[in-house]
Design a protein that fits this description.
The chain is an all-alpha fold. The chain has one domain. It has helices at 8-19, 22-51, 68-81, 90-98. The longest helix is centred in the middle third of the chain and has 30 residues, at 22-51. The termini are far apart. Mean pLDDT is 60; it is low at 1-11 and 102-107.
């Protein structure tokens, strides 16, 4: 459903209709969960990078210059390329794809 700004009153009505749409609420919720999960995952990655907790570099990723929008877009693109029945969590597959491109900086 598209919001069209005609007047203050109409805009408020359209916004209420959109916010009460179950499909819109479901998508909004899924996006919020995905974003929160990715933010948490990146926080852990930066912590591990700072304290050199994993010498095998599997969980070392310098994400300070990566925006949440970039990661979300990468997730959307990468998710489309996974074959059906792929085991594991999508973030783990995304991690393998991103890890070689953003290694921790040497301190």
């Amino acid at each position: 459903m598209k919001e069209v700004e005609v007047s203050c009153t109409n805009n408020v009505k359209l916004k209420i209709i959109k916010e009460n749409n179950p499909e819109f609420l479901k998508k909004q919720y899924q996006h919020a969960v995905c974003e929160a999960y990715i933010r948490g995952y990146l926080d852990v990655a930066n912590h591990n990078c700072d304290f050199d907790l994993y010498p095998d570099n599997l969980h070392k990723l310098n994400t300070r210059q990566i925006s949440i929008k970039q990661v979300t877009k990468a997730w959307e693109i990468y998710y489309q390329q996974l074959p059906d029945g792929t085991e594991g969590n999508i973030i783990d597959h995304l991690w393998r794809a991103l890890n070689p491109h953003w290694p921790c900086e040497s301190q």
